[in-house]
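R.M. (postdoc): so does anyone remember the format we settled on? I'll just put the structure tokens first.
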């Protein structure tokens, strides 16, 4: 990422920005106020379902939801696509995660999750840096090649909605936050913050998330 492209994410110790988003399940909304004074919140800010890395992260986070709930921590994943598109996807791929829709990335902007500028330098780096974030590729590959292979493994074919989401969102990064009962951020994990572009597609390990959740719920 270029220095000019980096935003400053909300840091631990700072208040979480309020948000209200359409729920993917049902017709209501979900907001930060739903959790304030009641429970800590594990918040995952992902991008559209066109992203094979995000689809895998949703599966991973779905397996963690019950363990987080045992610690008294609720989970919410924000997917950057229209509610009706998300509802169709999760009809066939159900998850225990509570889901909210934010196709225009308003929550990402509020939390300061970086969206790098697609400069020639960034495009060159994406073409040359090799990644294997989930370990399921035969070897590390350039990001675009890795994404294509994962798409093929999934049998996922982009829809016009996906194409429109890509046009608005790319190359938005992703992030995880733990927010305490008082609405204060206690932990954050920002994609590429530690490894630069070599960290594309990676988010914190299960152990790191659970350790942070225990500290937040204490």
């Amino acid at each position: 990422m270029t220095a000019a492209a980096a935003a400053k994410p909300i840091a631990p110790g700072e208040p979480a920005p309020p948000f209200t988003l359409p729920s993917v399940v049902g017709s209501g909304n979900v907001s930060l106020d739903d959790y304030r004074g009641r429970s800590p919140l594990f918040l995952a800010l992902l991008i559209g379902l066109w992203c094979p890395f995000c689809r895998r992260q949703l599966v991973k986070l779905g397996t963690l939801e019950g363990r987080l709930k045992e610690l008294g921590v609720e989970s919410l994943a924000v997917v950057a696509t229209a509610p009706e598109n998300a509802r169709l996807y999760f009809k066939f791929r159900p998850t225990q995660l509570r889901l909210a829709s934010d196709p225009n990335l308003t929550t990402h902007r509020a939390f300061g999750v970086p969206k790098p500028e697609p400069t020639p330098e960034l495009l060159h780096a994406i073409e040359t840096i090799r990644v294997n974030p989930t370990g399921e590729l035969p070897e590390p590959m350039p990001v675009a090649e890795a994404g294509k292979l994962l798409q093929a493994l999934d049998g996922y074919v982009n829809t016009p909605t996906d194409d429109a989401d890509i046009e608005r969102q790319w190359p938005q990064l992703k992030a995880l936050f733990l927010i305490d009962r008082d609405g204060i951020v206690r932990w954050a994990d920002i994609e590429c913050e530690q490894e630069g572009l070599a960290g594309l597609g990676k988010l914190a390990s299960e152990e790191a998330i659970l350790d942070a959740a225990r500290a937040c719920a204490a």
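R.M.: ...and that's the designed sequence above, right after the tokens. Also worth knowing: The longest helix spans residues 52-70. The chain has one domain: 3-217.
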